[in-house]
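Revision sheet: structure tokens.
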Amino acid sequence: MKSTTSARPQAVSRTANFSLILLEVLVAVGAVFGGVGLIANNAIGMLPEWLEGTPFTSWTVPGLLLLLVIALPMAVAAIAESLYLRWAFATSVLAGVAQLSWIVAQWLIMQRYFFLQPVMFVAGVGVLALALVAHRGESLRDSWHA
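Predicted:
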């Protein structure tokens, strides 16, 4: 009789890996859209009042930061996960932490609420949770080292 006890964790891991890649791609695409929209003379229509009390005088620098801090790590993590690179786990964790930090920084710096903030916070939690499930049994520490 064939045992399915080891097949189930592998299936869960594959499903989690696919879901993780999908979520990372969605967040990266959203961040590219948002970052480019902010850089392109605020084409996405963020309120100028939201910059009051922040160190920014336009949406250009926040747009660039969105591309560098969110879009780039999420895209690299999705690629690393897709190619099953050894450092994929670490990259996904880094991207998830960056996502959570980005939202917390928005709340602290702008002190404004936007409906996408909790959605993107949950996305960051999702990236972290899926990375843990997809890489269950792997060492995060080993993922960092060459």
